[in-house]
Design a protein that fits this description.
This protein has about 280 residues and is α+β, with helices and mostly antiparallel strands. It has two domains: about 1-200; about 220-280, no CATH class. Helices cover about 35% and strands about 15% of the residues. The protein has eight helices and ten strands. The protein has helices at about 1-10, 30-45, 50, 145-160, 210-215, 225-235, 240-255, 260-280, and strands spanning about 60-65, 70-75, 85-95, 120-130, 135-140, 145, 170, 190, 220, 225. The strands form three sheets. Strands 1, 2, 3, 4, 5 and 6 form a six-stranded mixed sheet that branches. The chain has a two-stranded antiparallel ribbon with strand order 7-8. The chain is globular. The N and C termini lie far apart (about 50 Å). The mean pLDDT is about 85.
Length: about 280
């Protein structure tokens, strides 16, 4: 757990983003998210002194899996180790680009509670660029939850908390009921009816709500993340210059009402002035 929390301050990657239009930043989530998740595994192994200070697990390392649950496992291939001890724990690892259009993580988590060991975790790393709209990815503090609880919460939300009744609440449970399934085994729970393809969207079920609210209030370059999201969303909506200006004025008023610091308001105004200059060129 300490290593997971320490990772953002020690995370290193050679990735650098430049020359992408601000309105296209939303498209970074999927391709860069996968690359960052792979880098997280490498960095976790580099932090061995935190999760194995006494060297008890020298033969174990974190390994990223493909198309299997959980997608990161602390495991060994050393001879002489029993099958029961070959995998110590698993992490379902997700990345979330904080300027994504949805304003919340959109990943889907469908693993059945039955395939989660008690020690398995679901870990979500929010990430952004160090120059907001360009630069190198940097991680923020993670959301960490027991994988089994997250799966149970997801199913409870689908069956009860959505406020839907009837067959639309039915879930077809996975046929596999033991932890660490093999590739090709059916380890996911599936909804009987899901036209919107929303089953498994953990954030939508409310599990991460307090974490997301707190994170979006954090300032980046003096401006809370929620305002950066709003800035970019205005342009992504494709509205005209007058509508954009109206929305910017509304955002400025909301920033004042939210008691943004004087430094934050100055940064806010600088961004708005830049956006208005861009509008004049449209």
């Amino acid at each position: 757990m300490d290593a997971l929390h320490a990772l953002p301050s020690r995370f290193r990657t050679s990735l650098r983003i430049a020359g992408i239009s601000a309105t296209d930043l939303f498209t970074l989530n999927t391709p860069l998210g996968a690359a960052i998740e792979a880098s997280v595994v490498e960095n976790l192994n580099d932090l061995r002194e935190l999760w194995d200070p006494e060297g008890k697990y020298e033969i174990y390392s974190f390994v990223r899996q493909a198309q299997v649950f959980p997608d990161v496992r602390l495991q060994t291939t050393a001879p002489g180790v029993s099958e029961a001890e070959r995998i110590l724990m698993g992490i379902e690892l997700k990345g979330w680009f904080i300027l994504s259009k949805e304003g919340e993580p959109s990943f889907r988590y469908k693993a059945s509670p039955a395939v989660c060991s008690p020690q398995d975790l679901m870990v979500v790393y929010p990430w952004g660029l160090d120059e907001v709209v360009s630069g190198s990815p940097r991680l923020m503090r993670p959301f960490i939850e027991e994988a089994r609880y997250a799966a149970e919460h997801r199913n409870h939300y689908w069956r009860v908390l959505r406020g839907v009744t009837g067959p639309a609440t039915d879930i077809v449970t996975a046929t596999v009921t033991v932890p660490y399934p093999s590739k090709g085994q059916k380890f996911n729970d599936e909804p009987a009816h899901d036209q919107g393809k929303n089953f498994g969207r953990v954030a939508r079920g409310g599990l991460m709500e307090p974490f997301i609210i707190g994170l979006l209030e954090q300032p980046v370059s003096g401006i809370p993340i929620k305002h950066w999201q709003a800035f970019l969303k205005i342009f992504a909506e494709g509205v005209g210059p007058e509508a954009i200006d109206t929305k910017l004025k509304k955002m400025r008023k909301e920033a004042e009402e939210a008691e943004l610091t004087s430094e934050g308001l100055e940064a806010f105004d600088r961004i708005q002035d830049g956006l208005r200059e861009l509008i004049s060129k449209l």
